[in-house]
């Protein structure tokens, strides 16, 4: 075997610089000094005999070859992670570090119910949580920054294994004094497109809500302004419109101390599927299935 091979540490530095676009922030992400990261990248370029990064005082720019090397480095780092996972998974399940990304429309409503029991029943599990939108979470998964992702389907996830946990109904939330308040459920035809408030682009709940309504004009007319469900609730409570909420958020108390009513959306697709996903052929597959059972019990 050749001794002139890049180290995983050098590739980690390169990927971090590509992700952050700044030597200082990349060094912080790798928990090393900026001089250590810079020296590691210079050694990598010397080892390969090429320039990967064009440096200036203000801009970090990767060469075309540098971008190709970064893409390959992602795969190598992911395989290195999987090698370590293979060793960890040979022992007791749900022990040691596990990095899970969770989307913002699930994290604050499901995790408070689940985490206390996990800490009690799995004291040796070190669960590191990262809240990020679906697309960023899936990117973290495929780049090896996350071991698994808790998200809502349908969503384009790429090559992953999926463990579905449960269905989460979509509810229409509106001021309690709305004269159009039906007794049980709300058909999409009753939704006033000029008053509909939804999460901004990047949140899959927006797409789930629009798909459930099956009214193309809603996508063009709805105000996509909310950065969080709590923001949308405050806007509705102040009479600015109506919105759609997942049932888990309402069950968790997001409407407490508000003058908002919530009714189920009357539609065949008025639900999202909560699921845990992980990379295909992961050596920790059985462990993730066990984690899914823990989350499902929550």
Automatic annotation (TrEMBL):
Pfam families named among the record's database cross-references: HTH_1 (PF00126), LysR_substrate (PF03466)
InterPro entries, alphabetized: LysR_HTH_N (IPR000847), LysR_subst-bd (IPR005119), WH-like_DNA-bd_sf (IPR036388), WH_DNA-bd_sf (IPR036390)
SUPFAM superfamilies: Periplasmic binding protein-like II (SSF53850), Winged helix' DNA-binding domain (SSF46785)
Keyword DNA-binding: yes
Source organism superkingdom: Bacteria
Record keywords: DNA-binding, Transcription, Transcription regulation
Keyword Transcription attached: yes
Domain HTH lysR-type as annotated: residue spans: 6-63
Family: Belongs to the LysR transcriptional regulatory family.
Protein name in the entry: Hydrogen peroxide-inducible genes activator
Protein's organism: Novosphingobium tardum
